[in-house]
TrEMBL record:
PANTHER family: NITROREDUCTASE MJ1384-RELATED (PTHR43745:SF2). It comes from Streptomyces fildesensis. This is SagB/ThcOx family dehydrogenase. NCBIfam families: antibiot_sagB (TIGR03605). Residues 160-344 form the Nitroreductase domain. InterPro entries: Bacteriocin_Proc_Enz (IPR052544), Nitroreductase (IPR029479), Nitroreductase-like (IPR000415), SagB-type_dehydrogenase (IPR020051).
């Protein structure tokens, strides 16, 4: 080894004991003394080992060479030649994404056994369990029909017909359709005894530990019997709680980069994650993945239920997080935007194709 450089995509954190560097590809943090930080910094984008060692003076050259060897061994420094390059995705996604991926791997979920019971008991004993439901009790309320519409479409037809729609008619959606869609997508259907964790909800969508951290906010444009505006869907009351009566389509267009399907249907649903519902029970980095899975479960339930109701669903993650959170009036440290869903009466040429799609040309056999 004649030349070294600082490893690319390093992630650093400052702890009370000193600077720690996350080693790429390993669930490992290396604590660096101020002297080692200086060696790492001088290595920079590449330097001859002799030049790096001699730069600290003859009296320190041996110690510096030993430090270079040690930093190379743990992966903080590397040789530009003969070293396996990082996978391309980390060059595209960055060191923070790589660190998160590494930290989130191989978590011990304590699925069964005495350790699980002990940890669960300790969590409950600490108290501070977050509320299972979010409500705005002082806001005007639209009570939704308690009896949902029957979903008579066959499973096969719904699976075949589920598409992402981007063009809608100007026809309104009925209150019963909206209420049925919200009920199946976001409301508990029944409850279950979860032992030390108490009563938990059973919804259509899977949710890690039945924590159901996803909240739904509905921007109504054309729903029969509902004044346009921004509402919070109260899963506990099966009701819409009015937050703002002046949220036109243009405001949603601004936060969704002008994607027409996000605001041209009958309504838009902005979903969030109330993070502490998960973090209270799952206290390891891997749990950060869980709200992503859960948001996807909810999105698919929404799309399938909308299809069964004859509506065209749309979903996207292309939105400005901060703008959504500002609109909803939530604290992003506690509750953050995760998914944008929308639906309306589809402008579709067939039951199996959305309005902006066409059948592919016939195949040519050579």
């Amino acid at each position: 080894m004649t030349k070294v450089r600082r490893r690319r995509q390093l992630v650093c954190r400052w702890m009370p004991e000193g600077l720690e560097v996350g080693v790429p590809g390993r669930q490992q943090w290396v604590r660096l003394s101020p002297e080692l930080v200086t060696v790492m910094e001088r290595a920079g984008a590449g330097i001859e080992v002799d030049d790096l060692a001699s730069g600290f003076g003859v009296e320190h050259e041996g110690a510096v060479r030993a430090a270079i060897d040690g930093l190379t061994l743990v992966g903080v420094l590397e040789s530009p030649d003969g070293v396996r390059e990082d996978p391309p995705l980390w060059g595209r996604w960055g060191g923070i994404a790589e660190r998160f991926h590494t930290e989130a791997r191989d978590a011990d979920y304590l699925v069964d056994g005495p350790e699980r019971a002990e940890e669960a008991g300790a969590i409950v004993a600490q108290g501070g369990a977050p509320d299972s439901f979010k409500q705005y009790p002082d806001r005007p309320v639209v009570l939704l029909p308690r009896q949902p519409l029957a979903l008579n479409a066959s499973v096969g037809w719904v699976f075949a017909g589920r598409r992402t729609h981007r063009r809608f008619t100007a026809d309104p959606v009925s209150l019963d359709q909206l209420g049925t869609l919200l009920f199946h997508s976001f409301a508990p259907h029944r409850f279950t005894d979860a032992g030390v964790f108490g009563v938990q909800q059973c919804r259509v969508s899977a949710s890690a530990g039945a924590r159901h951290e996803v909240e739904a906010y509905v921007v109504v444009y054309q729903v029969t019997g509902v004044v346009p505006g921004l509402y919070h869907y109260s899963a506990a009351r099966h009701a819409l709680e009015l937050l703002d009566d002046d949220v036109p389509r243009e405001r949603v267009a601004e936060l969704s980069y002008g994607q027409e399907a996000s605001f041209q249907g009958a309504f838009t649903v902005l979903t969030t994650a109330v993070a502490n519902r998960l973090a209270w029970k799952y206290r390891h980095p891997r749990a950060y993945r869980l709200w992503m899975y859960d948001a996807g479960h909810y999105g698919q339930t929404f799309a399938l239920a909308a299809t069964a109701l004859g509506l065209g669903p749309f979903q996207t993650v292309a939105f400005q997080d901060s703008a959504v959170e500002d609109l909803l009036g939530v604290d992003p440290d506690e509750e953050f935007a995760v998914y944008l869903l929308a639906a309306g009466v589809p402008d579709a040429p067939t039951a199996l194709l959305p309005g902006d799609f066409a059948f592919p040309p016939p195949s040519t056999v050579h």
